[in-house]
# Entry
Amino acid sequence: MSNKKTFLNIRPELLICFFLVITTIGVYVQVGTHAFVNYDDELYVIKNPYVRAGLSPESVTWAFTATHASNWHPLTWLSHMADVELYGMNPGQHHLTNVLFHVANTLLLFFVFRRMTGEEWPAAFVAALFALHPVHAESVAWVAERKDVLSTFFWMLTLWGYIRYVQTPGAGRYLMVLLFFILGLMAKPMVVTLPFVLLLLDYWPLRRFLIPDQAHSSDMPIKNQQAPGSGQQTSIQSLITEKIPFFILSAGSSVVTILVQKSGGAVASLESLPLIERIANAVIAYSGYIGKMIWPSQLAVFYSHPRSFSGWHVAGASVLIFSVSLWVIVNIKKRPYLAVGWFWYMGTLLPVIGLVQVGLQSIADRYTYIPFIGLFIMMAWGIPDIANARVFQNIRDHIKNRVIPGFAALILLSLMGATWIQVGYWRNSVTLHKHTLEVTSNNGMAHYLMGNAFLLVQGDTDKAIVHYTESLRLGFDHMMLAHNDLGAALFQKGKTDEAIAHFRAALRINPDYVQARNNLKHVLKLRKKSETKSLFEK
# Structure
C-alpha cells in the first residue's frame, strides 16, 4: 500500500473513495422521491404477493422455487423482500437500496483494479466512469433492475476474492471465490461470463501467463503469481483447468435460464425473429452500444426492433468490430489492456446481444452495466499511453500532467450532468414513457405503457385510449394486451360495443388469454342485464 499523503495529509485512495461516494450519491439521490414505474416493478414488487409479504417462511421458499418473471434469481427476490421488511412499500427507499449497491460496486471496482494494477488514477477513472455514466441510470434508477446492481456486487466480490487467491493460493480462498460466483448467479444469470473474464485478467493485469518476450506497460504488485501446484508462470491449460468448476456452474445456469425463459414465453422463436435478423441486430448492437458510451444521448427504457436493416449499416458495424478486434490483437504485446478491455466488452455482452432473443427489445441500456467496464479500461489506460506517444514527446510533462486530469474532469462533469437529467426521467411512469416516445420512433410498446400509465396510475381514460390506439396502429409483439386494455378503457367511457370488439380481437390473437375472456364475459353479462332491464321498462 502506498504511503503517499496528499491534501490535509489524507491518503489519495481515501480522497478518491470520498469523491466516488459523494458524486454517485449526488446524481442519484433524487430517486428517493421517485415512484415505482409500471414496467416490471409490478411483477417484482407492487403486485407480487410474496414480495409484499416480506421475509416470511412461505415467501423465502417461493424465492428459491419460483420462476416468476421468466427468471430464477432467488437472491434478487430476497433483496426485494428485505426492502419490504425494512421500508414497507415506500418506493423511494427501494430506489435508494439500488443506489447503495451501485456505490458499493463502484468502490469495489476501484479497489479491484487498484489492487491488480498498482495504478491508482486509472483505476479511479474506470470506477468514476462506471459510477457516473448515464447509460447506467436504467440499472440503478429502476427498482426492477435490482438484479443488475446485486449481481454486480457479487461479481466484484468474486474478483476481489480471486485477487486474494492469486496472491496466496489455497483451498479456502478458492472456495470463497466459487461461493461469491454462485451468489452472483443466484442474483442474475448474466454473471455466467465471469469465468471468461477471470481468464482475461489472468493475462492482464495479473500476468499469470505470458507470451515469451512480452512487455507490459504496468507492473503487477502481487508478487506471488503462481496458481496452485505450478511454477512462477502457469500454462493456459492449467488456468483453464482451474476454472472448470466455474464453467460447469455457468453451463448449468445457462441451461436453467433458457428452460425457465422458454417456459415463461420470453424466448422469441426463429419464426418470429429469423436468425439472419438476430445476427444483423447483434452486430449493430455491438457498435451501437459503443456509440452510446461515447455520446450517451436519446436513451430510452425500451427500443423496438427495427422493421428492416440497412445493408450498409450492418456492413459498417461489422467492419468496425472486425477492425477493433484486429487492432487490439496486433497490439496485445505492447498494450495488453486494449485486448482485455475489448474482449471483456464483447464477451460479457454475448448472453444478451440477441442471438437468443429474450424479451421484446432490440437493445437495452441495462445490458451495458458490466460490459462497459471493458471499454472504460481501454480509455483509462489508453489515454495516458496516447499522451506518452512519440508524437507528443515534445510536450512538457508538467503540461501533460495538467491537460490529462483536466480532460478527465471535463468528461466526468459532463457525465454527471447527463446522468442527473437521465435519472430524472425515471420520476414516474408518465415522465419515463413520455421521454421514450420523444427519443424513439415507431415504438408501439412505449405507447402501450404510456396508455397503462394514464389509465391505471393517473386515471386519465381519454389519454389512455389515444396511446392504446397508437400502439395498435404501430404494432408490437403483444398486441393482445393493447386490445384488452383499450377495451377496458372504452368500457369505462361507456363504449360497450367497441370494448367488446377489442376483447374479441385479443382472444383471436390468443384464445387462452384469461383476462380478455373474463372481461368479455363481464361486459356481455352487464349488457344483457341492461338490455333485459330496458325491455321491461318499455
Remarks:
- Confidence is low (pLDDT under 50) at residues 212-232.
- The chain is about 65% helix and 0% strand.
- The domain at 441-537 is CATH 1.25.40.10 (Serine Threonine Protein Phosphatase 5, Tetratricopeptide repeat).
- Residues 189 and 253 are 6 Å apart (CA to CA).
